[in-house]
Amino acid sequence: MIIWVRPTVSLFRCRALIRVLAPLAFVPGTLGCQQIIGIDFDDAEPRPEATACERTLPPERPDVVGAGGDVSFAVVVASLDMSEDETADGTPQHLVSGFDIDENCANRGETPICQPQSWTSGDPTDGAGGEDNAVGKLLFDQVKFLGAKALTSELLNARLTEGTHAPLGVIRVSDYGGLADDDQVTVDWYSAHQPEVVGLMPKFDGTDRWPIFQGAVDGTATPEMGDPDVLDFPPARERDANAYVSRFRLVARMGQATISFSNFYFQAFGVVLSGNLERDTVTLQWKMTDAVISGRSRADTLVEMLPVGAFETAGVTLCPGNPNYEPVKQLVCSVADTVLDDQVEPAGQCGATSFAMKFDAVATTLGPVLPDAPRSQPCPPDQDPADDSCRFPSENPIVFGDDAGP
Questions:
Q1: Which of these, 158, 156, 177, 155, lies nearest to 168 by C-alpha position?
Q2: What is the average pLDDT score of the chain?
Q3: What is the pTM of this model?
Q4: φ and ψ at 360, to 5 degrees?
Q5: Which has the higher per-residue pLDDT, 129 or 3?
Q6: Which runs of E-coded beta strand occur in 364-400?
Q7: Do residues 405 and 137 lie in contact, with contact meaning Cβ atoms separated by under 8 Å?
Q8: What are phi and psi of 44, to 5 degrees?
């Protein structure tokens, strides 16, 4: 993966950023609290030494002016990488995946802008370039803390291929000149339906016509909308009309984006999207490779996602009151590493969790527009985790120890 860096430019600026994707780890139904508490942390990685930080950021806008054009195309996320593994040299992927989205290199020569809730024993340390990817850290730590790798990129990609999971989203690029550099293009982000629910078996070969949420479209949309000419499709509510392309690398920023993860649609804020644009010389279709979508969501959103993630990926029931719920909630809350403008936590406490998901996207056709999917929740109303919060400590929190590391 190509990494662009630039020197520190400013301190963290409070910007409206919210909601992150990020997948949530859960404990298999057979794993009990005693097993979790008894885990040996002697081999846990130490906190990295504080060093000068060169922030990892997308490439800057090119110097070219007025390079726009009429090239337009749509792509659908066809595969993703959640950074739950290690690189070839043994570095946790979450430490080198994503961008510095809060202008703070936590414990990398700079004091963290916030701390997780004290009862969680969390650590907000970033990657060496300030990379913010707390969800990747959560998934990386599955085996160490939960005794099992319950949620993996391989599993999520298999669900996507078989049509049981909705893709992260569908992306339309327009006003593009088609060359290496373009100072202003438009990027629309659409929420897509779960394929099997609408009778679609995805091929991801450029022939799919992907159903879009009616709520994702800006303005009035009818079910018959959707045309091979992507310019005829209504714009998205979530878009960046000031995106750009630098050396064929697309960069877009959106105040918010609705992202599907394990069929749970969550609101991400302060979203940064970047990926290589490539055109097939035979089919002339565009695709996006080595892409990253990064942002943050409310920490409590990850708690709400727990039952859906467990049920959609493994058929496991994980609701408040289940003996495994509290320790998993603690682990999810422990990775909160940043803040939101409107957070209600006391000053200095992290109310948001960062994420960075790598993906590839292939050509698709937009449409039809269909009513939004109902909220998925496998728990009974009196056990709805939407009423839970990282502000409410578990009754018997696990003490991970100072050497549990990031």
A1: 156
A2: 82
A3: 0.82
A4: -120, 145
A5: 129
A6: 365-370
A7: no
A8: -65, 145
